[in-house]
Amino acid sequence: MRIAVTGTHRAGKSTLIDELSEHLPTYVAVDEPYLLLEDEGHEFAQPPSVEDFEAQLSRSIANLDDAPRDVLFDRCPVDFIGYLLAHEDSDAFDVDAWLPRVREAVQKLDLIVLVGIERPDRIARSASEDEELRGAVDEKLKELLLDEAYAFGVDVLEVEGPLSARVKQVLAHLSSSGRD
After folding, report:
1. Taking a C-beta distance cutoff of 8 angstroms, is the pair 132, 88 a contact?
2. More exposed terminus of the chain, fewer Cβ within 10 Å: N or C?
């Protein structure tokens, strides 16, 4: 089964993947595109530019094309659509040009696990983090995945609560769908 864990930055995605990997030992975990591109020498602007997010979007699509059957992805193409739509230079991003490729790629997933911001926030952050962007991306991702703004047509599970509860929610969902 191909599972992507999605959400804004500092929401608990990587932590959830690490824990799920313990419960799903046959699954391969794939790092988020930012880290993969950085390892390959891509130098990101600070904050990342529209072009940086498009590079991550492109890499995320390629990751889905090349992945094995049982895999846990840290992020998926929808993450980068969310970041690009929330970006201060979003008018430089042509979402319509990307949608066919994104839809085709996302259809290769069996499940997207959405990790949103909770109140009170469960993740400790530094005061220097861009809370406005973090919140805007969270909102965009919920719109894209829960309200199906672009009709990606993929199974989405929104998880909440402490890490142990999030893991139980994912495992229960897999079990109830006969995909564990």
Report:
1. no
2. C
Is 18's pLDDT higher than 60?
A: yes
| Rounded mean pLDDT, 8-14 | 91
Q: Starting from the edge strand earliest in sequence, which strands make up the sheet with 28-30, in order?
A: 28-30, 71-74, 2-6, 111-115, 156-159
What is the average pLDDT value for the chain, to the nearest integer? 92
Q: How far apart are the first and last CA of the chain?
A: 8
Whether pTM exceeds 0.85? yes
Using an 8 Å Cβ cutoff, are 63 and 73 in contact? yes
Alpha-carbon torsion, ordered 117, 87, 97, 153, to 10 deg? 10
Return the SS3 of 41. Answer: coil
Distance from C-alpha of 169 to C-alpha of 157, rounded to nearest angstrom? 8
> What are phi and psi for residue 30, nearest 5 degrees?
-110, 120
DSSP letters spanning 109-173: -SEEEEE---SS-SS---TTS-HHHHHHHHHHHHHHHTS-TT-----EEEE-SSHHHHHHHHHHH
**Hey, what domains does the chain have and what are their CATH numbers?**
2-176 (3.40.50.300)
